[in-house]
Amino acid sequence: MSIESSRRVLIVVENLPVPLDRRVWLEATTLVEAGYEVSVICPMGRGWDLAYEEIQGVHIYRFAQPHEAQSGAVAYAREYLNFLVHMFRLARKVRRAHGFDVIHGCNPPDLIWVLALRYRLHGVPYLFDHHDVCPELFEAKFNKRGVLYAVMMIWERLTFAVANVSIATNESFRRIAIQRGKMKAEDVFVVRSAPKIENFRPDPGNRALRQGAKTVMGYVGVIGQQEGMDLLVLAVEHLVRKLDHRDVHFVIIGFGPQLDEVKRDVKSRGLERYFTFTGALFGDEMLAALNAVDIGIAPDPKNAMNDISTMNKVMEYMTLEKPVVQFDLTEGRASADAASLYAAANDPKDFAEKIAWLIENPDEGRKMGQIGRARVLENLSWKHSVPHLLAAYDRIFAKRG
Description:
This protein has 401 residues and is of the alpha/beta class. It is built from 14 helices and 14 strands.
């Protein structure tokens, strides 16, 4: 029996159901393949509504979740209190049914340290999986700091203080763990979010989504307050009306709290014929939609959070050999390099200009797509992240003793 076969892990995630959360699902299944016993606590939603099920050897326990908080301390308190109650309840259930030797907490929010601290009294160490910089996320979402921002800074510091080991999605997050979180460098591992190339293969895709247009742009991801969809709509208006590129279409794949507002914005500007909103698509349907487009778009605005965040959608566009247009973000460049064009920060007109350049230079766009896929295959795919994930677990079990 390998050492891993006696290792039991509880993964806790609050903001997306599993297996819909692609990063968490890759981590969970990778650990199972390495011989770990893995349980997950996560919310229900988007068709994943069973309170318990086992998929690919992963035990998944789900809880009902209220709507995402949009504003105000009361709304956040309600959402987070609901999460805390279910997190403690289901942790007890998992403990009885399967046991766990490590708690693996995925933020946001930075509150899982409360559960981790309770079980550290029983010798269970905490591995913090740093998905989002929550103070910067709050600032980006509400365009202010104030009391709640200060609270989130405290929660972040407590999270790192309780964590025995931390994994970061990129080098920017690793620096935060070491500098702001005061963690030792040897306890912080970079596990990049990246597609599994076995599943992301270029092909013609679902051509019906192109709506007969010559050039099709695609977006996949959350449609929320910090994803820049308002800037994208302005860019499309400029592309169509000022740059006179009318033989185009935009396929928007995803869900989120701002979806209806984005649709209203599109309608009010008379741009409905240029957009298809598919809603949430998963698996083969999502791949068929993305493969049908010519250019991947990432309108996430430049702010303190986005500038240091690795965008899953950019990695997915690159894996499917699509050239990318995005705003000039530090980690966006680190991911895509020459596979992307970079618009001036938060300038929808320049974003439109970059799309127009790719429309007018399709051969150059194809070369960029090839560069992007090569970057993923050579350095950035999930198989390159697996050794770092397993090394982080070796580290936490070595510290556990």
